[in-house]
Amino acid sequence: MKVGYKIWIEDDRGNQLIGEGLEQLLLAVAETGSINKAAGKLRMSYRTAWARIRKAEKRLGCLLVAKQVGGTRGGGSRLTEEGYRLLESFAEFHRAAGKEIETLFQESFLHLLQSQS
Amino acid sequence: MKVGYKIWIEDDRGNQLIGEGLEQLLLAVAETGSINKAAGKLRMSYRTAWARIRKAEKRLGCLLVAKQVGGTRGGGSRLTEEGYRLLESFAEFHRAAGKEIETLFQESFLHLLQSQS
Prior knowledge:
Two copies of one chain form a homodimer. The first copy, chain A, has helices at 20-32, 35-41, 46-60, 81-115, and strands spanning 2-10, 16-18, 65-67, 77-79. Chain A has a domain at 9-87: Orthogonal Bundle (Arc Repressor Mutant, subunit A). In chain A, the strands form two sheets. The first copy, chain A, has a two-stranded antiparallel sheet. The first copy, chain A, starts with a strand and ends with a helix. In chain A, helix 1 packs across helix 2 (35-41), helix 1 packs across helix 4 and helix 2 packs across helix 3. By secondary structure, chain A is an alpha+beta fold. The interface between A and B is medium-sized, with 33 and 33 residues.
């Protein structure tokens, strides 16, 4: 047996703001410096990746990804300060929650399931 | 903002064994003493409720719900010892994990999101 879980942040109306999908997408944009390359890495279309980012930006009321103008790698995209802040906050929360769920699964669920037999 | 989550237990092949749906269904069977009344309470058909329980039983290799024979309320259903053990173990784990996720959401996610601004 193992434990499965999904964790996300939503607004007060129940609209998702960030979950594992957007976390991976923002991380891939930060790593590749391009929405197109990030989309390719996650095997989704540019259109889908772009739409997911824009939907989150609209709900949050701030830009998460900005066009990178000029420079030797001009034409790419980068995370804004708000984008980094959201990614880092969620990634840390997600990691800590996952670790806690795994611990509780071992120490609470499996322990209870076995101790009562 | 608020946090959303789903937690379930699965077997090593990735098949779900118990999640919030089966937890509520087993609880309703324990409370009503009848799969039919439990299904009605959760607004699902008897057929759906019965199939969910049987699928979990098949995957777990044990009975969770048994027919109650005779007595003044004969004809109903009750949880087996294994059914109670699974329900109580998962309900306690689910409750503890939810509490921990809420605490981490407040103390980790919201704290990180705000402290970096």
